Amino acid sequence: DDGNDGDDGNDGDDGNDGDDGNDGDDGNDGDDKPEMSFVLFNGETFSEDISEGVLVAMEKWTDQSTWYTACNDNANANVAGTICRYFGFKMGQLVPASYYIPKAGLPIPYGATNVMCPAGASSPNDCDVTEYWEAKVPCFSGEQIAVQCGDMAWKMSIPSFKVAVREVKGGSALRGKAFCEVEAEKFGADIASSSSIGAVLMNLRKSDQFSTTSTTGYELEMVSEGRWNKKMGAYKMKIKQNLESGESAKSQCYICVSYVEEGSQWVHKRDADCAYPGVTDEVIREMINKMKDQADEE
Questions:
Q1: 139: number of CA atoms within 13 Å, CB side?
Q2: β-pair type (110-116, 65-70)
Q3: CA quadruple 67, 72, 74, 75: dihedral positive or negative?
Q4: DSSP string, 21-50
Q5: Of 8, 119, 164, 179, which one has the greatest count of Cβ atoms within 10 A?
Q6: d(CA 215, CA 223)
């Protein structure tokens, strides 16, 4: 035997049949949903620092940026809340985009529709969307997602307050009318679901010199209470009160107060002809706070 019939080792495993790593996951099959940044357009400016407007998304590539809006199909309160939390607010609501879009339209194309966000999401990037070019139903101008955001559950205002009075009987009596208009919006809930919301017409008077309850020298007396009327998506209250008093106009100072007790939000406006021009808003707020404390104790 010359040894040539032995195993020369060439039949062994040369390692070339092993896994070269090319069959593995190269990462291209994963979720490649782009990360977007967002701003709001309020009819005048695009910004991250405003509280209302049309949602605009920006997708960044190498050396250019493309801007998109989203159609409001199937958008709900979760979508509004998510958008507003992204911009640093606690809550928000969907509103018509027509509030902010100029007559010539908004020259930004749709990029998404059917936006659906999980409850409590903090960014629109956490939401599921249908890319607009895959949608079967077109969206038109004015159908963009638009929001109003805030940190209070209520947005309240007193757009008008008028008091028209005249003295009669030689200035010893007073007759007239007071008209107070209050508007309120609530994010995500019906205003009629709570009884601790309302508006009142009050009269500010000088306290009795022997009063031990007033720290300001003045007291508030309720004249009339309003009731809410829902109309056109907003809630409005009108207080119309005929005034007749045995006191002269020199002792009258009517104040319209709207309030949300649970949210500790109180808004007031006083008659421009208040008999006590030296009574500041700070004094009125102090009296209102005292009323709130008394209501809490009850």
A1: 27
A2: parallel
A3: positive
A4: STTS--STTS--PPPEEEEEE-SS-EESS-
A5: 179
A6: 22
Q: What's the confidence (pLDDT) of residue 27?
A: 41
**238, two tokens:** 């009108």
Query: What pLDDT is recorded for position 141?
Result: 92
**β-bridge pairing 265-270 and 197-206:** unpaired
Over residues 171-194, the pLDDT tens digits come to 566 677 778 888 777 665 554 444
CB 56 within 8 A of CB 67: yes
Q: Helix, strand or coil for residue 291?
A: helix
Dihedral sign from CA coordinates of 165, 168, 171, 174: negative
| CB atoms closer than 10 angstroms to residue 243 | 20
For 193-206, write each residue's pLDDT tens digit.
444 667 888 888 88
pLDDT, one tens digit per residue, over 37-73 is 999 999 999 999 999 999 999 876 544 468 999 999 9
Q: Which helix (H) or strand (E) holds 78?
A: helix 77-86
Q: What are the b/e assignments for 196-230, b being 16+ CB within 10 Å? A: ebbbbbbbbbbeeeeeeeeebebbbeebbebebee
What are the tens digits of pLDDT across the range 230-283?
554 455 667 676 666 655 666 778 888 887 765 557 788 888 888 888 888 888
Question: Sign of the C-alpha dihedral, residues 19, 20, 21, 22?
Answer: negative
Which DSSP helix (H) or strand (E) runs through 236? strand 234-245
Query: How confident is the model at residue 23, as a pLDDT?
Result: 47
